[in-house]
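Input (Cytoplasmic tRNA 2-thiolation protein 2):
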Amino acid sequence: MCSIEEEIQTGDAETPSIRSRRRLVVEGLCHKCKQSPPVVDMKRVMYCKTCFKESVVYRFRGNLMRATKIADGAKALVAFSGGASSRLLLHLLSEFHEPDPSNLRKKRKFSDVLICHVDQSAVLGGEDKEAEVRRIGEKSGFPYLHIPLESIFSNDDGSDGGALVPVGFDLADTVTLKMVHRVTSTLSPVARLRRSIHGLGKMTAKEDLLHHFTMRALLNTARKEGCNVLILGDNATRMAIRILALTSKGGGFGLPIEVAGDTDWFEGLVVARPLRDVLSKEVAVYNQYTDLDTVVMPALTTAMPAKSSIDRMTEEFLVGLQRDFPMTVNTVVRTAAKVTSEHRAKTVMRCPMCGGPIQDGTNDWRSGHTVSQLLSHAPSSDTTSEALSSTSNTHPCSTSCACAPTVNPESTSTSCCTPADQPINIIPYLCYPCQNICRDAQEFGATAAKKGIDDATVILPAYVGEEITMRKGREWMKKEIEEFLIDEED
Ligand SMILES: [Zn+2]
Ligand SMILES: [Zn+2]
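Output:
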C-alpha cells in the first residue's frame, strides 16, 4: 500500500503539523471513502461518484445553514436562469426543502420557496428557449414566476412608469449626463429596454447595466412576493470572475456585498449564494451525474473574442489560470471575503442605478484625475428628448434650487418647483462604476448625434430619477434644518 502519508514520513523537510494535516490516501481508490474507484479529480483530490456528490451537497447545505442573517422559516425566492449553476441550485434546494423522513417534526429552513426567471430575451434573444426554462422550473414543484426584464420600466401595478431620457449630448463634457423624466412615451417597455442597453457603446457597460437591471428585477419580485431571502446561483468561478472584474472597474468599495455568503445590504432582504464554494466545473460534473437538464441561453458576448469586455477577458484569464493552478478560484474568493470597506458608514449613500454603496469623495476623486471639459466644445444635440416627450417642462430653475438642472448636490438652498420635471446631471449621484456606464452613454450618444442618428441614445428606468430626486430632497431638507440640529459632540 502506498500513501502520501508514508512518503511524507520519509521526507526531512515536512514538519509534524503539516504531516498530520495530510489525509491518508490509497492509490487507485477514492481519497474520501477509500472503497470505490475514483471518477472525479477535483483540485487534485480523487472522488468516487457518491463522495463527490456528497461533497457538493455538504458545501451547499453548510453555506445555507451557516447563513446567520437568514431567519428560520423565511420565504425564499430562487433566481433561475435555466443555466447549469441555477439548475443545480434548484435541484439541491428541492432536496433541502424536503421534510426529513427520520425527523418529521424538524422545521424546514424556508417556509416557502418561489422560483423567479428573469426573461432577458428582449435584449439577448433566445425566446424559443423560454418554454424549456419554464418546463424545468415547474417540474421542481415550486411556484414559477416569469418576469420579463422590461418590467423594470413599469410601476409595481404594471402602469407606465415613464423613463429618464437624455437632454442633449456633449462630446467635450464627459462628466455630465443630463436626463429628464418623461411621463409618457410612444416607446414600449421592450423598446425602452433595448434602447438602454444598445444606447451604450462598450460591451463592458452593456454587461454591467444588464446585470444591474436583472438584479433589480429579482429584488423587486422578491419584495413584491413578500420574500425575506433571495437565493442566487453564483458559483465560485463566477464569483471569482466578478471579484476581479469589479475591482478592475473601480468597484472594490462594494466588494463585501458581492462576495458575502449572505448579506442584508438590500433593505429587508437577505441575498444568499449557497454555491459560492462550488466550482463551475463541479457544477457541470454534478449535473451530468444527476442528469439535470439545462438551457444554454445566449449572452451579450456569445461568440465574441475574449477582449470584447472586461468580464469576458477576466473569465478567459481566470479559467486559464485555474487549469494550471487548481486553487486559484478558491484563493480569489476567500481573499476577497476578507476585504472590508467602509460601506456601512452613515455617510455612505446607495447608488440609484446598481443599489451598491457610493464611496465618499467619489466625485472629488474623479474630478482630480479626469479631463472633464475640452476647450473647443462640440455642439450638443437635443434630439432624443424631443422625440420622446409629450409632457415637458423646460423652465430652467435657478442654480440654487434643489431641482435645478446644474445643481451641485452640496449647494442647494431653496426649492421652487417639481423636481421630476427638471433635467438633472445624474452622474454625480452614482457610484464610480455606474458613472463609467453613463460616461460611455454620453460618448456613444454624442457620437451618434453628431452623425444624425437620434435613436441610439440611452434611456434609463424611472426609478433612477426618482431615487436621485428623493436624495436631492433629503439633502435640501438637511441643509435647511442644519443650523437647528444639535451636533452629537456638543
Ligand atoms: Zn468515495
Ligand atoms: Zn452604481
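The chain has three domains: 1-61, 62-159+198-340, 357-484.
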